[in-house]
Amino acid sequence: METLERLPEEWKAIEGDWLTLELKNEAAITNALDNQFGLFLSAERQQTAALAKKARQLRNFFTVIFLAIGGIGIALAFYLLLHQPLVSR
């Protein structure tokens, strides 16, 4: 009888004996979706954590590279300033 309660309002107005056939088990579908959604969320969390770890590693790598390049640039600038030939005018 609960199947008849889920009918659209227009169909409920039609009188007569209704024969219903369950084409899908909604409780089984709901349980499966809950389980699959939980597994999906867990997999997404793991994937996000792995991606965040790779991003941190890449950021650290480029930070070290740019600091090294900056240090070399500053050292070169000081060297050129200290060993610049004196130009007299």
Describe this structure in words.
This protein is an all-alpha fold and 89 residues long. It is rod-shaped, with a radius of gyration of 36 Å. It contains three helices and no strands.
Separation, N- and C-terminal Cα atoms? 107 Å
**Overall pLDDT, averaged?**
86
Number of helices: 3
Radius of gyration of CA atoms, rounded to a whole number: 36 Å
Count of discrete domains: 1
Percentage of residues in strands = under 5%
| Shape descriptor | rod-shaped
Count of beta strands: 0
Low-confidence stretches: none
Biggest beta sheet summary: none
Helical residue percent band: over 70%
H/E element sequence: HHH
| Derived structural class | mainly alpha
Structure keywords:
single chain, 89 residues, mainly alpha, rod-shaped
Topology:
Blueprint: H1 2-5, H2 9-12, H3 26-82
Gist of the model:
By secondary structure, this protein is mainly α. It has helices at residues 2-5, 9-12, 26-82.
